[in-house]
Amino acid sequence: METMIEKGITGLFENFLNKESLFKEKKVLQSSYTPSEITHRDEQIKQLANILAPALRTDKPSNVFLYGKTGTGKTLTAKYTTAQISKVAEERDIPITILYLNCKLNKVADTEYRLIAQMCRDLGRDIPATGLPTEEIYRIFYAILEQKHQVIIIILDEIDQLVKKAGDGIIYNLTRVNSELKQTQISIVGISNDLLFTDNIDPRVKSSLSEEEIIFPPYNAIQLQEILHRRAKLAFKENVIGDGVIEKCSAYAAREHGDARRALELLRVAGELTERAGKEKIDLEHIDEAEQKIERDRVLDIIKTQPKQQQASLLAIVYIASKRSDAIFTGDVYSLYLEICEKIALRPLTQRRLSDIISELDMLGIINAKVISKGRFGRTRDITIAVPTGLLPKIKALLEQALDLL
DNA sequence: CGAGATTCATGTGAAGTATACCTTTAGGCTTAA
DNA sequence: AAGCCTAAAGGTATACTTCACATGAATCTCGTA
Fold first, then answer.
1. What confidence tens digit (pLDDT) does each residue in A275-289 have?
2. Are residues A164 and A254 in the same domain?
3. What's the pLDDT tens digit per position in A116-159?
4. Are residues A364 and A252 in the same domain?
5. What is the phi-psi region of residue A234: left when phi exceeds 0, alpha when psi lies from -120 to 50, beta otherwise?
6. N or C: which terminal CB in chain A sees fewer CB atoms within 10 Å?
7. For residue A374, what are the CA distances in angstroms to A76, A324, A328, A351?
8. Helix axes A260-276, A284-304, angle to 10 degrees
9. CB distance A348 to A365 below 8 Å
10. A132 strand B contact, CB < 7 Å
11. Are residues A210 and A327 in the same domain?
């Protein structure tokens, strides 16, 4: 029995190895890849380089704010430009340090403490995850900075999330470093895809943060095609891509506000699916398949990595949503949530907290939750599931398994 | 009939609590001289 | 006496709870036409 399975598996591996891969270099299509040349962002790169250039004379560059929808090349431009700067700086022995922080929710840098702590770690100083006063962390941070004369460029990706969750005082504190330290100057590169976010922050913070602004317009379908062509040439072997495939990927992504990241991902996943199916040429239907798979993986991955309480809350919502199709209210969710908690022996949270969790799930884009007033019948949130309904059973199963239900 | 008051179910802010973790410090014990 | 380990003391961030007040349109109330 065992040997048969073993045989089967080794056979599978052999098969896999014998089959020629469609990819030449798959990592070119991954979002972490920084190409040596960036297409259609010359203008933005030039602007950013101009703004940051004073760092090479050890002057403080202005703070910059980069706006634009997802997948318009903001992060890429920031990383590319700063990498160039630090290359030059290294050659000429100019002391410049670049820090890149992602402030996404539930990530390492989504509170004031965690942000500063993470920067200290990047500078080579270990900081415990909790226990120290925030002021102490600032002291350590200052001490590290003061060790040598230098310019620090801090890139804060998805800064809107940080400010939304932890307030704008952080930015204010960071900009204050400049007046407190003589040796070191820091400047901030803020990246946001929420164009409206600066409306609700302290005007002082706003003005200091956006001394300069660079707008990233969406790519149009033609530009996307060029980007894809260029990368596909590096990533795939010859004659692997079927007719119209690149055009279709571009069109899909252009429909979604010109998101290049998405276009590249579509192409990569389509390639993987083709390969797995044992075919030799990517054709159009693989793209549709890829689109579904991407969405599914994204959602399932978010859900999988949520804490138990969030999962239980979501399961309650999913149960209700699959049973009836009219609006779902907070009260319904809470009572079902309590039942679930009892079944799996999970200490139930208060409704107050559940209310916040629902907001969090909304922020993650798994559900839509809008506050409505039902007049005489009070007010509540109108909750709907924000993922394709075809995914519901899968989500349900995943959650039940994650929570040890049944 | 319509303006204003009422009402409901929950949103939302502030303040307090539990937990897990951190540093400092004071003993207490060991060790080396 | 100096050095090292340990446990207690005193402190923090974070996730959560408790308390109290805010919301806003459907419905009710009641004066008026």
1. 888 888 888 888 999
2. no
3. 888 988 888 888 888 788 888 888 888 888 888 889 999 999 88
4. no
5. alpha
6. N
7. 46, 19, 13, 19
8. 110
9. no
10. yes
11. no
Residue A309 CA and nucleotide B15 C1' are separated, in Å, by 24
Which CATH number do you get for residue A348? 1.10.10.10
Q: Is residue A72 part of a domain?
A: yes
Distance A143 CA to B19 C1' (A): 31
CA of residue A127 to C1' of nucleotide B21, angstroms: 12
* Partners of residue A154 on adjacent β-strands: A99, A188
Reported as a single tens digit per residue, the pLDDT across A192-236 is 887 777 766 777 788 888 889 999 999 988 999 999 999 998 888
Domain, as residue range, for A261? 221-302
For A135, residues 6+ apart whose C-beta sits below 8 A from its C-beta are none
Asked if strand C comes closer than 7 Å to A361 Cβ, the answer is no
A85 touches strand B (CB under 7 A): no
For residue A368, report the phi and psi dihedrals to the nearest 5 degrees.
Answer: -110, 130
Tell me the CA–C1' distance in angstroms for A12 and C15. 47
Model-level pTM?
0.80
For B12, which residue's CA is nearest its C1'? A352
Nucleotides of B under 7 A from a protein CB: 6-14, 20-23
Residues in chain A: 406
Last residue of a domain, one of A260, A277, A302: A302
Cα angle, residue A312 at apex, residues A309 and A315 outer, rounded to 5°? 150
For nucleotide C27, the protein residue with its alpha carbon nearest to C1' is: A376
Separation of A326 CA and C24 C1' (Å): 22
Position A366 in a domain: yes
Check whether residue A342 and residue A383 sit in a common domain: yes
Provide DSSP, A194-248: -TTGGGGS-HHHHHHHTSEEEEEPPP-HHHHHHHHHHHHHHHB-TT-BPTTHHHH
First to last CA, chain A: 30
The number of folded domains in chain A is: 3
